[in-house]
Design brief:
Length: 244
């Protein structure tokens, strides 16, 4: 299964086309170009997904380490704002922040220009998961979970002020005779329990603690894309978020 942009071993970003709701990957058309303009902004660019690539700045696992996304002319672009959400044919673009089988907690720096990917910190210390994740973890570009909007489906919980999180499963081909645990159950249990080694309680899930349908996932994507458009059009205060 092909990817449009593959990161270096140290970079924490990869760019793929995802069919449906990011559960099946497909190859990217090599000559596809998308002309886009961010709502409310003046920048217009010709985006060629195959030309985008990650560019490291600094040393991995340091406070100054950043991974920028650059185009074919080596110009910085924002993985959050400049990469279109939709890739055509009902597919979405997906930005990987944390590669599978790694533990450094990487995330888009939403408060920095060009929103590079950096390692998260707590009290000045770099953050790590207590064990490796077993899938690629990242975000859907041009989405935003509005922290002022309460969601009645999950007991009135507010958005977390970040793009929508995505887990991309697949990649590994199982061997005949393998005994595999149900993938969705394993993912749910991982996110429920990963804070317990730090002395915190298990996370709680809404929606009856069950996976939702494709239709519900698409509804969430549409709603958060609309929230992002309001954000970049300055209809909602950006606070410390970078719109560059």
């Amino acid at each position: 299964m092909a990817t449009a942009v593959t990161a270096s071993a140290t970079a924490a970003t990869r760019f793929t086309r995802l069919a449906g709701v990011a559960l099946r990957r497909s190859s990217c058309r090599p000559h596809t170009a998308v002309r886009f303009q961010r709502p409310g902004l003046t920048t217009t660019a010709l985006l060629r997904p195959t030309e985008l690539k990650p560019k490291d700045q600094g040393q991995p696992e340091t406070l100054d380490y950043r991974v920028f996304l650059v185009d074919g002319a080596d110009r910085k672009v924002s993985p959050w704002h400049d990469v279109p959400l939709r890739a055509g044919d009902g597919a979405f673009h997906f930005i990987v922040e944390i590669p599978k089988e790694s533990s450094a907690k990487m995330e888009v720096a939403t408060d920095e220009a060009y929103t590079p990917i950096k390692q998260d910190t707590k009290k000045g210390n770099l953050r790590y998961y207590p064990y490796n994740i077993n899938w690629n973890y990242g975000l859907l570009p041009q989405t935003w979970e509005d922290p002022t909007a309460a969601n009645a489906d999950v007991e009135g919980a507010l958005g977390d002020n970040d793009p929508v999180d995505v887990v991309e499963i697949g990649e590994r081909r199982a061997n005949i005779g393998d005994v595999l645990r149900g993938t969705l159950t394993a993912i749910r249990d991982w996110f429920r329990d990963y804070k317990i080694p730090d002395g915190k309680p298990a996370n709680r899930f809404g929606l009856g603690n069950k996976p939702t349908s494709k239709e519900y996932a698409l509804k969430v994507i549409e709603e958060t894309n609309e929230s992002w458009e309001k954000l970049v059009k300055r209809k909602i205060p950006a606070g410390e978020l970078s719109l560059a």
